[in-house]
Amino acid sequence: MNSEAFAANPSRALGSAALAWLETRFRGAAPRSLSALSGHPGRSRDKILYGSLSAAEGRPLQSRRAPVPEAPFYREFPFPAYPNGWFAVGYGDEVAPSEVRRIHYFGRDLVLWRSEAGRAMVFDAHCPHLGAHLGHGGCVVGESLRCPFHHWRFGADGVCLEIPYAKRIPPRARVRSWPVCERNGLVFLWHDAEGRSPEREIPAVEEYGAPGWQDARRQGWKVRSRMYDMGENPVDAQHFRFLHGGIAPSFAQEKDEHGATRNVSNLDMPTPKGAIRGSIISEHAGPGFGWVHVRGVLHTLIVMANTPIDDQNVEVRFNYLQPLTEDAKKKRVGEKMVAELVRQMEQDIVIFENKKYLTDPCLVPEDGPIAEYRRKARRDYTGQFFGED
Ligand code: FES
Ligand SMILES: [Fe+2]
After folding, report:
1. Do 228 and 281 have their domain in common?
2. Could you tell me the pTM of the whole model?
């Protein structure tokens, strides 16, 4: 390991082939950074909790493509705005027991709230009675959420438990409760365009919160782009060389023990004192969550979550983790490595916020498996309108 050499020049030492996997499918811009790089308190292994699925079943959440926005390029984007899968809607430590937060994803107003017992839940924001916003004065009562307007009270499955002034509760008195999973420090909701139940769980990232690993350093961005479009970037081999100034990686794919696709790249990382043999291994659990191990110079793990805010914007959350060390040089190397990863992300965002999606791009074989990515990405989307590559 040549951490000293890396500290002198992290960009060259790591090499853009390594960084290829690091940037993954999430992009951002510094001016709109949601949070500075910072440590935060450690946490125990997260709980997995599910809200009732019943409210979501049988009802399309987004069965039609969202209205076309004004941006001209967008009219030519041939995919539904929102893919299916688990999507982070906040960090678990951002919502305390008995707290209600207003959030906005998938073009919808939602509330993220935590019961007195600690269960995180996501409801549609507006009360089915007369439409009050549950995030403006809504109150957690035990395991239920009470509307501020007339004090109707809704349980974890969204069903109304109490109308304090009525003799009976109408069957329609329910608010949509989204399937929720809290894991890896994040609260996820399950989105399915046809309202189907979750088909898989969010995997636990082994190193997250484990002894011997730092607390995650967080970085967040809002990106004016589409999830599908950003997801194409990691397989765009040549841009690593020409946009980021490194080398184009080669790709290999394998299945992990859970059947998830694992992208593997073994490579020599150039450093001022010679090449270091390294590897980059990335895995994705659907379009909204993934993680990447980079080994060679300094083991770094990036846990990544992105979520559509609406059909033109994506919220990106990155967590950077490295092994605990008392070595000052290694700490410096680690910090520079993260800074370099952030720099490359911000190069990408300029491209993504201004590029146009081409349904029939002019590709050459050396571009990387872009067409293959497009074919596979369709599985994460449902809807009526799919373009051809
Ligand atoms: S609007 Fe919520 S109780 Fe009336
Ligand atoms: Fe990139």
Report:
1. yes
2. 0.78
